[in-house]
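#lab-general

N.A. 3:47 PM
ok so I finally got the sequence cleaned up, no stray characters, all 86 residues accounted for. can someone with queue access submit it? mine expired

B.Y. 3:52 PM
send it over

N.A. 3:53 PM
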Amino acid sequence: MLFEEPAQLSDCAGLTPPTPILCGDQSPGPPSRRSVESLDAVMPQSRIGPLPGAGHKSPLTHVEAVNPAIRNHLQRTADNPGRCAA
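B.Y. 4:20 PM
back already:
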């Protein structure tokens, strides 16, 4: 999928847990966006979470956006076990 990553997109196909896919709108170019869109397309309960102003290292550079997104996802998942956290 990316660079030397041994996982293939098909490895993610059909994963059913609710999954946020966070993506900074300043991530490096089309390959990053295509990766996010490809994962979202094969994972039935995924949800793209855009991070305005964030780039590739958003967990380090945009903690104020990433941490609440993860916390909210975990809370929605806990409140609705077995359902998509969209």
